[in-house]
Amino acid sequence: MARVKRAKQLEFLEAVPLFTGLSKADLTKVARITEQVAVPEGTVLAEEGGPGNAFYLLVTGRAAVRRKGRKIAEMGPGDFFGEVALLDAGPRSATVVTLEAAELFVIHPKDFAGLIGVPSVARKLLAGLAARLRAADRRIID
Prior knowledge:
Blueprint: H1 6-14, H2 24-32, E1 35-39, E2 44-46, E3 55-60, E4 63-67, E5 70-75, E6 80-81, E7 95-98, E8 102-107, H3 109-116, H4 119-141
Antiparallel strand pairs: 1-8, 2-7, 3-6, 3-8, 4-5, 4-7
């Protein structure tokens, strides 16, 4: 797997609503704790009901999102899930399985915790998370 150049990595991270309020310097801090991994087709990235253990951002490939065994969505490059898992290891709401070989950026909660210790970064991250939750609420209500 070829490593994604830092500029491209920052571009991917910047598109994540949780990170949109971060400066380039703050995004670089996020990039430093981001692991790039390659997985084969059929890899279970998250199991419905299992603990949230990481944030995943697809760089290449596709993945199916299943709830109660039924496919409810498909994800591709730039799509992500698990941002709440960075703050809480609560149960996953769906199963996510790769439909083809994929490259992902992965952030683990223990690494993310260091960023939350920086007040200026923490405030921006919480604002991003609040915006994402508000958007989810609007989708439910509409």
